[in-house]
Amino acid sequence: MILSIDEVSIRNQNKIIVDQVSLTIREGDWFALVGESGSGKSLLSQSIGQLLPAQLQVEGSVFFKEQDLLKLSAKEIRKLRGKNVAYIFQDYQGSFTPFRKIGEHFDEYLKVHGFSSKKLRYKQAIEALESVGLAEELYHRYPFQLSGGQLQRAAIALALLLSPDLVIADEITTALDSVSGHRVLEMLAKRQKETGCSILFITHDWRVVRRYANKLAIMKDGKIVESGGKHRILDHPQHQYTKQLIKSAPILEKGLPSGLDREMKS
């Protein structure tokens, strides 16, 4: 077991937003958390790394390798984020400061986590960029000089730089076109295979769930209404809300969308 969320609730002054959610992610899982906007998916994922706004209160436990993350101090959780638990956000541009070159972000990230040798930091950064199909020259460019797909891949490379055990990816392809989105997902899948990391994947796209996930949970109004293996839920959904989501989703083809294979090869 890599992560165990145990009866986590998130509330503000007026209401409970996430209500006693429990789920377990094991080593090597691609765990999809599925639900409509406003269901509480992102807030739940942010609670893992203590990234919630101060006005929200969290109850329950989040065990990462038997360590309750919600009980860690600010200093302790900062050491763990990035090295052991990494985030990739929908707003991939937010991972980079516009007036700093891509390489400077990688260099600072490594320096903060104890890499004192500048030569080694450069080598690590270039290997990370190349692992997601980006050329060395992009190290010296500014974020605005990269395409959306390239910048998202750079964000993935930065998140996976220290080979974290758990990667939390929140709607990471929403702002990308279908080709760029597919490339990003393939890169993430490739890196997962290479590093053996677990992935908590926040999404509302059932095609992504079918293609990549092995486990999933359905979230509605702050609660988990159904969870289990991908094939069991997709082929034999039990909860009425799950049935409605699947029925209203685009056709769940196992392959790529029409014409995408051809574009990917070009």
Automatic annotation (TrEMBL):
One of its GO terms (cellular component) is plasma membrane. PROSITE patterns: ABC_TRANSPORTER_1, ABC_TRANSPORTER_2. Signal peptide: none annotated. Residues 3-246 form the ABC transporter domain. It is found in: Cell membrane. Transmembrane segments: none annotated. Keywords: ATP-binding, Cell inner membrane, Cell membrane, Membrane, Nucleotide-binding, Translocase, Transport. The keyword Cytoplasm does not apply. GO terms for molecular function: ATP binding; ATP hydrolysis activity. It is a peripheral membrane protein. Gene3D superfamilies: P-loop containing nucleotide triphosphate hydrolases. InterPro entries: AAA+_ATPase, ABC_Ni/Peptide_Import, ABC_transporter-like_ATP-bd, ABC_transporter-like_CS, P-loop_NTPase. Belongs to the ABC transporter superfamily. This is Peptide/nickel transport system ATP-binding protein. It comes from Mesobacillus persicus.
